[in-house]
């Protein structure tokens, strides 16, 4: 996913604020929750689900959807393409 995907879900300002925030740590449980909901919910439902999360958790979801988490992991060598 990309920042454009995240901005389509939550808007440019919300994504910018979330990316500047201190997010919750990324966990496999959070990744699984995002994966399941992204597959099962409409974009509007997924967006609403994420917005209902506490701010640090929402910020982590935004980082994941925007591709920031993956980019950071690639930079650290933790993910192989």
Mean pLDDT: 90
DSSP strand tally: 0
Count, helices: 6
**How do the SSEs run, as a string of H and E?**
HHHHHH
Proportion of beta-strand residues: under 5%
How far do the termini sit from each other? 14 Å
Large-scale geometry = globular
Helix content: over 70%
* SS class: mainly alpha
What this model shows, in words?
It is a single chain. The protein is mainly α. The chain has one domain. Helix content is 73%, strand content 0%. It has six helices and no strands. It has helices at 3-10, 12-20, 28-40, 43-51, 55-65, 68-76. It starts with a helix and ends in a 5-residue tail after the last helix. The mean pLDDT is 90.
Task: Give a quick rundown of the structure.
The chain is an all-alpha fold. 73% of the residues lie in helices and 0% in strands.
Task: List its salient traits.
single chain, 81 residues, mainly alpha, 73% helix
Helix and strand arrangement:
Layout: H1 3-10, H2 12-20, H3 28-40, H4 43-51, H5 55-65, H6 68-76
């Amino acid at each position: 996913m990309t920042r454009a995907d995240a901005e389509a879900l939550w808007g440019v300002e919300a994504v910018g604020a979330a990316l500047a925030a201190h997010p919750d740590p990324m966990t496999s449980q959070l990744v699984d929750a995002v994966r399941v909901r992204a597959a099962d919910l409409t974009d509007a439902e997924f967006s609403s689900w994420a917005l209902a999360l506490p701010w640090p958790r929402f910020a982590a979801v935004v980082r994941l959807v925007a591709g920031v988490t993956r980019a950071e992991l690639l930079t650290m060598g933790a993910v192989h393409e």
